[in-house]
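Customer escalation, tier 2.

The customer says the design service returned an amino acid string that "doesn't look like it belongs to this structure." They asked us to rerun it and document both sides in this ticket. The original structure tokens are below, unchanged.
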């Protein structure tokens, strides 16, 4: 499933084998590659020409020409939507400003302190949930501005634990 934003409209697109659904409605769609970044589309018996102008994977922005009309799309995958729901949405410059608890649990260890500079992949918090230890790692390099939890403290899902 993908969420596609075009201006102020949001479309949920699901592809299952040959079947495509947009906002829950099955559409007939066929595509043929006609150039390096160009495609001929047949959508519900309507012929369209689409050219991919640019794609920025860091912002998930796709710029296309559809029948020579320029459009900018923001494409979110299921994983992107899940990360956003868990409070791990990335912001300006693709940097996180806060780390939220991905699930309810108990803080076992906080091997960092406020003011520390951390590297991408470094463990920030060890969280026990469902009798398993989960290492919450940094997805970026940066400086820890504030730690909002303590060792031994219980946390709820989406509770802010660390601010960059």
């Amino acid at each position: 499933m993908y969420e596609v934003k075009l201006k102020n409209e949001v479309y949920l697109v699901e592809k299952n084998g040959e079947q495509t659904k947009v906002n829950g409605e099955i559409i007939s769609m066929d595509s043929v590659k006609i150039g390096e970044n160009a495609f001929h589309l047949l959508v519900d018996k309507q012929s369209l020409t689409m050219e991919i102008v640019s794609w920025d994977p860091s912002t998930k922005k796709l710029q296309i020409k559809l029948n020579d009309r320029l459009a900018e799309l923001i494409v979110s995958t299921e994983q992107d939507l899940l990360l956003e729901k868990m409070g791990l949405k990335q912001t300006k410059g693709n940097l996180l400003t806060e780390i939220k608890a991905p699930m309810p649990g108990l803080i076992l260890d906080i091997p960092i302190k406020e003011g520390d500079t951390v590297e991408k992949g470094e463990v920030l918090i060890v969280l026990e949930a469902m009798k398993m230890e989960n290492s919450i790692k940094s997805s970026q390099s940066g400086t820890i501005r504030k730690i909002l939890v303590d060792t031994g403290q219980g946390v709820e899902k989406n509770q802010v634990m660390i601010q960059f």
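Tier 2 assessment: The sequence is consistent with the input. The radius of gyration is 21 Å. The first helix runs from residue 78 to 85. Sent an explanation to the customer and offered a walkthrough call.
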